[in-house]
Amino acid sequence: MDQNEVLFDRAQKSIPGGVNSPVRAFRSVGGAPRFIKKALGPHMYDVEGKQYIDYIGSWGPMILGHNNPHVIEAVKEAVDNGLSFGAPTVGEIDIAEEIKRLIPSVEEVRLVSSGTEAGMSAIRLARGYTGRNKIVKFEGCYHGHSDSLLVKGGSGLLTFGTPSSAGVPTAVTNDTIVLEYNNPKQLKELFDKEGDEIACVIVEAVAGNMNMVPATQEFLETMREETAKHGTVLIVDEVMTGFRVALGGAQSLYHIDPDITMFGKVIGGGMPVAAFGGKRDIMNSVAPLGPVYQAGTLSGNPVAVTCGLATLHEIQQPGFYKRLSEQTAKLVKGLGAMAKKHGVAFSAQSIGGMFGIYFRGKCPTSFKEVMECDADRFKTFFHAMLDNGVYLAPSIYEAGFVSITHDDSVIARTLEAADEAFAKVKRV
Ligand code: PMP
């Protein structure tokens, strides 16, 4: 047994499933997860000292690569000043101003500590602001694990959702309507019928929790038009896409003006910072100004905010997103070519520093099509890559992430590993 297996056995005796977030447990691909000791640039090192090229990037935040020296220096300085005060700090104003400057739809922003909190608070705010209960989400989108959002579509969709987790009462999800992603017709039908009763629509503009599935322009435009027409709050969840697909987020690529945007991941640069923000009259419904309660002991934590701010500064260097997009495009193009060489049905695409790989001839456009991807072939590919020092997300439902430190040599090494991995996939 190697050290990873020994530690996984040990972890399972004191932590449910041995992990503190389920997907880390490798349940769908099998085997022991790697216990990471340290990381630098595009690489992570496990407890055995083995090096991996990292395409998870802590599930999105590590856009600068690991241990960026400017970020680490800023964080060390912040630590010297104290870990937490529970009182306002200048950094909180700085990061709010920075977010506003980069994302023009945001007029005011409240910091929280996780994307889950951002989603939960945004939904409560939309309900409090509109005085309506019903909310709309889309199949395959994930917005954190708050009760009313843990919902799967009922039969035939366009129905009220049923809970997708034990412990969530149906009473809580009764007001959550689940629709198909990228189906503007279905959305319009719902709004024609009951638009005036709907508090909000929440959406990932580039879905990253059913692998990667970009929204169509028509889908988002219909959503903006219908929500505006009916006084429904449009929440765009940019926890994953914010500062990842472009400096201005997915909303800048689609030219969509949300009422509320959720942020997470990159805005914390690897520490627990997330946020929800948007139009001033809506945000003014939040406590202490308005009747919608929301709070957090560690919200706006000075060390975490410093880490986020330093990260936001770095990503504004000239040419950052051009280079990030080019490197990510090289990766997916290279993977596609390798798959073709080995005659494996495969497709891949990227937007900015985010990518999707699919064991399916064509990139999927819906949850249903994602479900058609070949999970067995992915599993073989995943393990072959991991053995060869390339760490991909251990699930067919996750997007992948590239950092600015993934240079040509790193991409080339990845493609060498993929050459062998696709050969293996072909044999099984
Ligand atoms: N929204 C989206 C789009 C996400 O990808 C995630 C996390 N993967 C969340 C919300 C929840 O964020 P957190 O894990 O920080 O609670």
TrEMBL record:
Entry coiled-coil feature ranges: none
Xref: SUPFAM superfamilies: PLP-dependent transferases
Entry's EC annotation: 5.4.3.8
GO molecular function: glutamate-1-semialdehyde 2,1-aminomutase activity; pyridoxal phosphate binding; transaminase activity
Major subcellular site: cytoplasm
Alphabetized UniProt keyword annotations: Cytoplasm, Isomerase, Porphyrin biosynthesis, Pyridoxal phosphate
Compartmental location: Cytoplasm
Keyword Protease: no
Pathway stated in the Swiss-Prot or TrEMBL entry: Porphyrin-containing compound metabolism; protoporphyrin-IX biosynthesis; 5-aminolevulinate from L-glutamyl-tRNA(Glu): step 2/2
Requisite cofactors: pyridoxal 5'-phosphate
N6-(pyridoxal phosphate)lysine: residues bearing it: K265
The reaction(s) this protein catalyses: (S)-4-amino-5-oxopentanoate = 5-aminolevulinate
PANTHER family registered for this protein in UniProt: GLUTAMATE-1-SEMIALDEHYDE 2,1-AMINOMUTASE, GLUTAMATE-1-SEMIALDEHYDE 2,1-AMINOMUTASE 1, CHLOROPLASTIC-RELATED
Family recorded in the similarity comment: Belongs to the class-III pyridoxal-phosphate-dependent aminotransferase family. HemL subfamily.
Subunit structure: Homodimer.
Name the UniProt record assigns to this protein: Glutamate-1-semialdehyde 2,1-aminomutase
Species whose genome carries this gene: Parasutterella excrementihominis YIT 11859
